[in-house]
Amino acid sequence: MEKRNLTCIGCPMGCQITVEMDGEKIVSVTGNTCPIGDKYARQEVTKPERTVTSTVVVRGGSGPRVSVKTKGNIPKSMIFQCMEEIDRVRVEAPVRIGDVIVKNVCGTGVDVVATRNID
Amino acid sequence: MTSYDIVIVGGGPAGLAAAVAARDAGVESILIIERDKELGGILNQCIHNGFGLHTFKEELTGPEYAYRFEEQVLQRKIEYKLDTMVMDISHDKVVTAMNRTDGMFQIRAGAVILAMGCRERPRGALNIPGYRPAGIYSAGTAQRLVNIEGYMPGKEVVILGSGDIGLIMARRMTLEGAKVKVVAELMPFSGGLKRNIVQCLDDYGIPLKLSHTVVDIEGKERVKAVTIAEVGPDMKPIAGTEVRYTCDTLLLSTGLIPENELSRGCGVEMNPVTSGPFVNERLETSIPGVFACGNVLHVHDLVDFVSEEAARAGANAARYVQEGEGAGEAGEEVRLVATDGARYTVPSTIHVNRMDDLLTVRFRVGAVFKDSYVSVYLDDERVQHMKKRIMAPGEMEQVILQKKQLAARPGLKTVTIKIEAQ
Amino acid sequence: MYDVIIIGAGVTGAAAARELSRYKLSVCVLEKEEDVCCGTSKANSAIVHAGFDAETGTLKARFNVRGSEMMEELARDLDIPYKRNGAMVVCIDESGKDGLRELYERGVANGVKDLRILDRQECLAMEPNLSENVVAALYAPTSAIICPFMLNIALAENANVNGVDFFFNTKVEALTPFTCEKCGEPVWKIRTNNGEYRARYVINAAGVYADVLHNMVSEKKIRITPRRGDYCLLDKTAGGHVSHTIFAQPTKMGKGVLVTPTVHGNLLVGPTAVDVEDREGCNTTAEGIDTLIARAGDQVRDLPMRQVITSFAGLRAHEEGGEFIIGEAEDAPHFIDCAGIESPGLSSCPAIGEYIGAMMKEKLGLEEKEDWVGTRKGILDPSALSLEERNELIKKNPAYGRIICRCESVTEGEIIDAIRRPLGARSLDGVKRRTRAGMGRCQAGFCSPRTMEIINRELGLPYEEITKHGRASRLVIGRTKGVEE
């Protein structure tokens, strides 16, 4: 039986969670203090995901970069692939908060959106 | 001289939330003075997510969180001045400020809300020996360069200090193509949030070396290498544990200092533990009508708590303006004492007569405590005793005091908050 | 061909340049760094010594006392922050009183005015924060504090305005004597990384490198050892801890650690004294800083060493004879040394300049220029203006309404002035030494991106080429996202 120790990131509590695994199968989740922890731990050992935040080049705006994020989580293993796509994008000002900057980034089904306004 | 009922110094998260709350409490004449070219303060460069879980029940990035409050300020048509530096606040609440278009000008304020935030501790204050080449940045300066200006400070990075900005910048520099070689932390624990250690270091295989510090910086022009050594319980480097990392950049994330030059100039009494003003239950400083909130008062872990605290300061400032100084007979003053592991409390005094039914008292602990109790004593009697699985200096703690409980004890002198093993 | 080439743009070279700029003469200064004031002149105790310390009859004593006499007027003429705050050499042991008396007598013999021995009570009345152990002190009211950067910069600027050329990033590699075909006089050919220069006279003001240059042309070798001194600079909130410059009594182990207010209101504690090999070895060390923290309290109590905002190290050009070497090299005609200029070099520089000027006047039979301008206006300090004057200024030039360095309240207008004026700043440190932007308690955390933006705009220098202090001290390596903009 394999044990995996995780730090929950669901909230600032940072619960220390232990997941017991039997191969691919989760046997138990302990140490969490709320359902978010349980969900996080199960997710993290099977299909870890992250939100990626970065910036994108803006031309003709009040600043040279606009901050962006993936609108939802993407697979952790695809962070650098997404970054490559984000790095290549060039947008023209103005940009509004929530504007889609990259649609369906790297085929994840998740859009990259602006997180601020650039006039 | 122009006058405003409330002048708010700083248009970051604290200033914005204070302004909104003051307006909602019915004060028309409010001015926010912001030194940068936009509202939002440091949140504009904090492009990572994780803000707003408490306030908005969703995860926002820094700029998005700021924008929620900016919108509220704009909707309420609250006045603000950008690119404007407050130069002085006098004891009788005359605010002197300056910008390119208005020149230097003075405003008479009915109440002042201090919301200037904090700044990073620089290398000099740490007495790190070595050369003084280019390539040594505080993490926040590097964050501004990367996220706002779009410049890369360097490509091989060592980070001293595991404060949140340092951790966030470890990930950010990595995503922008730099190699972050190590994060060294002087203390035996990290000052940063757990999620940041997981998502910013562990995810990218960046080692975190606790009880380590920088003992030498090489490079006469640009940083060439940094040497890190383990420290003993006395915080002094242990000979023979030195490891040299070649790098071109050293980022420092070794603590935040409330930015209280204006408060000191104004004559506000300062708490040496927080480096922020002493405040009472209304978040009012030792000068009546001068309030403080956010990181200028004490460094917060989460912006949500800044907003919440600032809203209280805004509402109290409004009440001060509307009701005058004598509003609500102050009555006896109760002192709050932090001891046995609790380092400080905000507020530090309470007038029981004037307090809300429930009063949130925030504090930090001085070390990591596991399976310990947060206890509240009214004079000698313990009235609260809450078990906490873990408490760490990096995170703020809170207790909630009930007015009726305090009011039931005439002659109450002190409320003591302490950490107990049992 | 220049009449005179000065090697080194520190205080000595700059003072010589300014004196020579009085005359009808072609002069240039060659400096290996990107700016003036990059060596010994930038990291020292910032004190204009009264002159009781050096042995009577030495050049050090003579130039120090004369320099100290000249400095007040020079500071007024060139708009340099200067304050005659007086110094105390504090004796903390009865057995030291004889030594104090000796120092007093030496000072009197050197021509230092108004020296006085104070008893314990007088000491504590004048400086309440002196150590409990104080028994007496030598008081030198003529001792002063000055901004060493501004002294250096102002001297160089004024020389430049009066016709002296300055070439930066120009390192002398070889000096070759030859005879001028036209006049039959000895002339110097100077090879540098930036081409060749020729001059009838060379003045060697190369600081810690002065022996290297001297030894290129002379068989009478000299040897300079860089003597490193670590310093701690304390926040302005600690600046009032003492009002006089407080020296320890000199012992066999050296002059000891001093504590002094600076002319800008900080408190300076230092230096240590360690001989090093590396002529650029101005790194601070843990031992050095620990020594300062341990020793600083000997003369002054309750020093708030937690208020340190930065530490730095400087190198003194210590010649093994312990004396200034000033004058024409015996076996190298037309090669004039200003070597071994360690403490009291800053105090002596006006006198050394004056001496070099007089020497050259005699040698070359120089005539004074009719249009020489001996005064200079420094960078305007808006905080010295009234509200009305300040608003007038901002109306004329809005850049004076924008604060760039919040710790020291430096405006964009001042930074632009620092960049645009003669021998203007080209780097972050150049701006810092001229305006104090970045010298405050946050140590440039806030202002450096903003100062970079101004340098970029004013000099058309791409961000990637903006440096902290010249050469390869680049601040950023390029754009994110690999964009070229």
Characterization of this structure:
The complex is a heterotrimer of chains A (about 120), B (about 425) and C (about 475). Chain A has about 120 residues and is of the alpha+beta class. Chain A folds into 2 domains: about 1-45; about 55-115, CPE0013-like fold. Chain A contains 2 helices and 10 strands, in the order E-E-E-H-E-E-E-E-H-E-E-E. Chain A has a 5-stranded mixed sheet with strand order 8-5-6-10-9. The mean pLDDT of chain A is about 95. Chain B has 9 helices and 30 strands. The model of chain B has no long low-confidence stretch (mean pLDDT about 95). With about 475 residues, chain C is α+β, with helices and mostly antiparallel strands. Chain C has 3 domains: about 1-40 and about 150-225 and about 320-365, FAD/NAD(P)-binding domain (3-Layer(bba) Sandwich); about 85-145 and about 225-320, D-Amino Acid Oxidase, Chain A, domain 2 (2-Layer Sandwich); about 380-465, Arc Repressor Mutant, subunit A, CATH 1.10.10. Chain C has helices spanning about 10-20, 60-80, 95-110, 120-125, 150-160, 210-215, 285-295, 345-365, 385-395, 410-420, 430-435, 450-460, and strands at about 1-5, 25-30, 45-50, 80-85, 85-90, 115-120, 135-140, 145, 165, 170-180, 185-190, 195-205, 225-235, 245-250, 260, 265-270, 275, 310-320, 325-330, 335-340, 405, 410, 480. In chain C, helix 1 (about 10-20) packs parallel to helix 8 (about 345-365). Strand 11 of chain B pairs antiparallel with strand 23 (about 480) of chain C.
Brief summary of the model shown:
The complex is a heterotrimer of chains A (119), B (422) and C (485). Chain A has helices spanning 35-46, 79-88; strands at 2-7, 16-22, 25-30, 49-50, 53-59, 65-70, 74-75, 90-92, 100-102, 112-114.
**Hey, which two chains have the biggest interface?**
B-C, 50 and 54 residues
- Low confidence ranges of chain B: none
Strand share of the residues of chain B? 35-45%
Number of strands of chain B: 30
Biggest sheet record of chain B: 7 strands, mixed
Distance between the termini of chain A: 56 Å
Poorly predicted runs of 5 or more residues of chain A: none
- The secondary structure category of chain B is alpha/beta
Cross-sheet strand order for the largest sheet of chain A:
8-5-6-10-9
> Counting H and I runs of at least 4 residues, what is the number of helices of chain B?
9
Helix content of chain B: 10-25%
